[in-house]
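Saturday, quiet lab. Running sequence design on the structure tokens for the scaffold JK sent over.
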């Protein structure tokens, strides 16, 4: 299993690919703003083509796949050459498949039991999702008690105003967020604003 330096990402932009061209364009803007990793979620028809295109056309960007919810989707992203996959949750089937797959997998968790199931399958990093809904920074501090070695990538409800509170926690390696790649920014081709928001998040 390949291990990524997640702390170096700082903020992992979580992208819904509307189409290939706009996803390549927003990836270039994020890269120009200092972001070197992107999570493209499997929520749209365009997602797998967008993953392939960004890998090809923006090779400096590490392309992770998000919303990987079952072993079949895991196979698809492995076939696409992806080395990091994330999920909003986890099932035992998905966790078992992930331990056999040639990539790093970050399952989603929302409770102590979810963390324990992830640990059963050897996971060292989990995505807290939806982070602000299930308790936010207080939840992460509380989980740090029984699970001192587990690291988290909180995602869901994070924005420019609060992500630094999460990053400051010792058990947070990086934060997921979409505030720099909203539908409004992407649909209107506001690449300069995306670049600026990325740069602000990385500074
Ligand atoms: C995901 O779908 O992977 C999220 O980040 C929620």
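Result came back. Writing it out in full:
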């Amino acid at each position: 299993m390949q291990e990524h330096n997640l702390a170096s990402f700082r903020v992992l932009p979580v992208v819904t690919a509307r189409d290939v061209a706009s996803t390549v364009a927003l990836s270039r803007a994020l890269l120009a703003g200092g972001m070197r990793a992107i999570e493209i979620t499997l929520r749209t028809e365009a997602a797998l083509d967008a993953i392939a295109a960004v890998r090809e056309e923006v090779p400096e960007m590490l392309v992770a796949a998000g919303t990987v919810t079952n072993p079949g989707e895991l196979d698809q992203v492995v076939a696409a050459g992806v080395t990091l996959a994330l999920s909003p949750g986890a099932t035992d089937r998905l966790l078992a498949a992930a331990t056999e797959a040639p990539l790093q997998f970050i399952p989603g968790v929302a409770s102590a039991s979810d963390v324990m199931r992830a640990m059963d399958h050897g996971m060292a990093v989990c995505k807290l999702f939806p982070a602000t809904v299930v308790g936010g920074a207080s939840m992460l501090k509380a989980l740090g008690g029984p699970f001192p070695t587990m690291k988290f990538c909180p995602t869901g409800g994070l924005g420019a105003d609060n992500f630094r509170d999460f990053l400051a926690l010792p058990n947070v390696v990086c934060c997921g967020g979409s505030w720099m790649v909203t539908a409004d920014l992407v649909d209107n081709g506001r690449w300069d604003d995306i670049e600026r928001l990325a740069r602000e998040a990385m500074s």
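Notes for JK: The mean pLDDT is 97. The longest strand covers residues 11-16. Ask whether to fix the surface positions before the next round.
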